[in-house]
Amino acid sequence: MAKSYRVVQRDQPFLLPPDMRDWLPADHVVWFLLETVEALDTSAFHARRRLGGAGTAGYDPDMLLALLVYAYCQGVRSSRQIERRCLTDVAFRVLCAQVAPDHATIARFRAEHEAAFAALFTQVLQVTAAAGLVRLGTVAIDGTKIPANASIDANRGQQWLDEQVRQIVAEARQVDEAEEGTSAGGPGDGDGERVPARLRDRSHRAERIRRAAQEVAEQTQRRDQAQREREDAALARCRRSEAGGPMVGRIPDGPHRLAEAQAHLAREIAAHQAKLDRNAAILAAGRRPMGRPPVPMEQSTRVLRARRVVQAAIDAQARPGAAGESGNAAFKHRKPKHLPSVVANTTDPQSRIMPTRKGFLQGYNAQLAVSADHVILAVSVSQSTNDQVSFVPMMQAAQDAAACLHAQTGSGDHLIGTVLADAGYASDANLAAAGPDRLIALARGRDQSKAAPGEPAETPPLPGATIRQLMAHRLRTEEGRTLYKRRGATVEPAIGNLKTILDRFSRRGLNAALGELQLAATACNLLKIYRVAAAA
After folding, report:
1. CA gap 302, 346 in Å, rounded
2. Is the pLDDT of residue 186 over 60?
3. What is the full DSSP assignment across 433-500?
4. How does pLDDT run across 230-273, given as a tens digit for each residue?
5. Within 13 Å, how many C-alpha atoms sit on residue 462's CB side?
6. Mapping DSSP to helix (H, G, I), strand (E, B) and coil, where does residue 62 land?
7. 288 near 319, Cβ under 8 Å?
8. Rounded CA gap, 499 and 475, in Å?
9. What is the average pLDDT across 385-398?
10. From residue 89, how far is each of 17, 81, 83 by CA, in Å?
11. What is the pLDDT of residue 339?
12. How deeply is 15 buried, as exposed, middle or buried, from its count of CB atoms within 10 A (0-12, 13-18, 19+)?
């Protein structure tokens, strides 16, 4: 039992000068980050600084960089929150050496060095390789949707944006006329020296509305161009089908769907009639035909299936508004009725509406390439909701990173073995693209895991198999199943660690989001080095 309480004496001055090196343990991550930043080439962060002349001394860019990286390691991205931590958190106070920068300085430093964060990511990756990490026997590529600093309710269509732009132009014209009247001695807003109140809006709303209107116009132009390309491809396909050429795949929606379906039916009827005529000729010659005789025309499964395809095309053509529908017509019918088909966000015009398992969000599609030991090799930010278009660029980025590391270390661990990706990246173009060996699933994860053991491939693939058939065969082999199982265990933990740091973008715009993602990936890799070194 305690005899008394310890004395609480807050007004006791320090008897000896304090030493900040005693404030944190010797193995704290802050000391590791400071040593790492000191060893890196940070000249890009110093290039924008001007020394000499009048004015207050500036903040050291190395200090600001270490402070920002540590803040991201802790999941703190708000510049105001970082400023507060520099006053209340011992680790932050050590990093800034008791010279706390204000939030505007932190935000401006982050905004001014978007390009430098890419070089910083590459340098940290080289440090990671020098530490004995980055094993590239397998590299997994995957994407994750990250919300933007914008609300999904801020999306507007072309009509609303055009009306706002007209109002802005009219308001600007009125301001010009008022200023001309003031300079001529007429009544005006103030004494001619002040800026009108409606022009003192620092949120730049008018500029964001103009950018949103431009985004909608560009999206509309791209959509129209893609629609024309789809219609041209559908017409060419229909003509090949009418000429008797075999077609592979589903008949695309649109004005040529019925014609191609009818051509397909005619081709199936002609092929089955040829079988019937050949069988009848053999019987008429008094010979016995080999094999099972062909079924009557009305019982042929291929003909019946072709008739159903024709009927489905007739039904689709009879639906209201069916004329001119493209292949994504079903998706357009599922869109909310209160939104136009093409929208842009007035807060972050470059962000997009992204579908996820939990619904829709306003954000970006972040792509990661991860090594077998969970080191992030490359990152990118896309506006596309589809992952297919990102596979080749991400694979190339991973190859470039591997080549850079191999040139530095000469280690065989820094040569890419196999690239792993899920079914979201499955396309003939991605399967056939030049590059390293790859395994891309052709079905969803659960279906893929069930199909492989149920239908194991124990013989070589058939001669003349397509590239998709070859991939399906390999995924059913023991080697393919074992290798593909590493995909989830490789990339999913890295995405989880990244999202503990960056669960929402703080800055707006595609380039700003990419710079912030690179900074977060740099923090992830630095934490990886620190934890491995601490466990050794």
Report:
1. 52
2. no
3. SSSSEEEE-SS-HHHHHHHHHHS---SPPPTT--HHHHHHHHHTSHHHHHHHTHHHHHHHHHHHHHHH
4. 777 777 777 777 777 767 777 888 788 888 888 888 888 888 88
5. 6
6. helix
7. no
8. 30
9. 94
10. 20, 11, 10
11. 55
12. exposed
Query: Residue 255 and residue 326: Cα distance in Å, rounded?
Result: 9
Q: Please check whether residue 43 is in contact with residue 57, taking contact to mean a CB–CB distance below 8 angstroms.
A: no
Q: How confident is the model at residue 182 (pLDDT cuts 50, 70, 90)?
A: low
Q: How many CB atoms lie within 10 A of CB 7?
A: 6
Backbone angles phi, psi at 359, to 5 degrees: 125, -155
> Which residue in 315, 327, 191 sits closest to 249, CA to CA?
327
Type and span of the H or E element at 419: strand 418-421
| Distance of alpha carbon 207 from alpha carbon 197, whole angstroms | 17
Determine the Cα–Cα distance for residues 253 and 317; give it in Å rounded to an integer. Answer: 10
Query: Average pLDDT in the 312-322 region?
Result: 76
Amino acid at 184: A
**Burial class of residue 412 in the structure, from the number of CB atoms within 10 Å of its CB (0-12 exposed, 13-18 middle, 19+ buried):** exposed
Which residue type sits at 498?
L
Residue 122 has, within 13 A of its CA and on its CB side, a CA count of: 15
- CA separation for the pair 63, 183 (Å, rounded): 50
Q: DSSP character for 57?
A: -
Task: Assign 336 to helix, strand or coil.
Answer: coil
Residue 315 clears pLDDT 90, i.e. is over it: no
- What does the DSSP assignment read for 100-143? PPPHHHHHHHHHHTHHHHHHHHHHHHHHHHHTT----SEEEEEE
Residues with Cβ within 8 Å of residue 486, at least 6 apart in sequence: 138, 140, 372, 420
Single-letter amino acid code for the residue at 57: A
- Angle between helices 103-112 and 510-535 in degrees, nearest 10: 100
Tell me whether residue 405 is exposed, middle or buried, using C-beta atoms within 10 angstroms of its C-beta: 0 to 12, 13 to 18, 19 or more: buried
Bin 164: left if φ > 0, else alpha if -120 < ψ < 50, else beta. Answer: alpha
Taking the C-alpha atoms of residue 209 and residue 223, their distance in angstroms, rounded to an integer, is: 21
Structure token digits, residue 323: 């004329």
Which candidate, 395, 350, 352, 351, places its Cα nearest to that of 377? 395
- Report which of 323, 298, 306, 327 is spatially closest to residue 262, judged by C-alpha positions: 306
Give the single-character DSSP code of 146: E
CB 211 within 8 A of CB 510: no
Query: Residue 188 CB: number of other CB atoms within 10 A?
Result: 17
> Helix, strand, coil: what percent of the chain each, to 5?
55, 10, 35
CB contact at 8 A, 439 and 419: yes
Q: What is the pLDDT of residues 488-523, one digit of tens each?
A: 999 999 999 999 999 999 989 999 999 999 999 999
- Contact predicate 502/368, CB 8 Å: no
Cα–Cα distance, 98 to 83 (Å, whole number):
12
Q: How far apart are CA 525 and CA 536, in angstroms?
A: 17
Measuring CA to CA, how many Å separate 32 from each of 15, 25, 26, 36, 369? 30, 11, 9, 6, 25
